[in-house]
Amino acid sequence: MLNFLPVPLIGLIASVLLGLNALFWVPILLLFAILKLILPFRAVRLRIDPILVAIAEVWISGNSGWMTLTQRTAWDVEGIAGLDPHNWYLVNSNHQTWADIFVLQHLFNRRIPLLKFFLKQQLRWVPVMGLAWWALDFPFMRRHSEEFLKQHPEMRGKDQAATRKACEKFSLIPTSVMNFLEGTRFTPAKHQRQQSPYRHLLKPKAGGIALALNAMGDKFQAILDVTIVYPDGAPNFWEFLRGRLKRVIVRVQTLPVPEHLMKSDYAGDPAVREAFQRWVQKLWQDKDAQIALLLDQARR
User: Fold this and answer.
1) Does residue 298 surpass a pLDDT of 70?
2) Which of 5, 75, 177, 268 is 20 to 30 Å apart from 32, CA to CA?
3) Which domains does the chain have, with CATH numbers?
């Protein structure tokens, strides 16, 4: 544990270890990903995809290692026992900070299949990490607003086609499809701008989860609904690297896949969209109440 060191030095050490860990594993990932690109056959993918996942899991373990070294975090976690690393899950979580991703990877690594995130198209160009996400088949999505889609309805089908293509790759080996329903990180400014009806959450967007369920709902064993709470406030990325992740509360609820919505046409049927939105809003109401309760308990 290095948390006795000055805070700026902890941040420097964590940053260096984070960078070295990525620079070591990304070239290895790329070697296998390029081989898969040259030989785009199902049999090759079935051989190489598990190798890529194994590399990513070791990489995540390295991140967990430097987190343990530089952080003194009190973890309060419930709901991760008994999960199956050899099955498919659809994972949903609230989103407040880049630290969420490290928290999720730390807790779920090797407990469930590798988390695959839907990423904004712009993130493809992030140095080093963009290549890693490409190698691991993370889908890059153009997340158009509902207002934009109303003006350009032809783009709605392209979003759906891109999601379906990504999910076809996910169906080859066990995968956890990760979705942040809010679509962006929570901030007070965004909360106010949206006039969100939830106290601790932004408005959820049902489109991504609907498309994932439509494309491969019969593969998912369950939906893992994750609630992350930072009782001392959500740290930004630099605060996280400086060892400021003091307390984390995580609750994971295993939910059944809603079969009545699984193969329905979200894009083309207004009644289906309304049903999905009701289901998501109920999920979000329960999550908002749970966050309020957990915060209240943590402050006592």
Assistant:
1) yes
2) 177
3) 73-299 (3.40.1130)
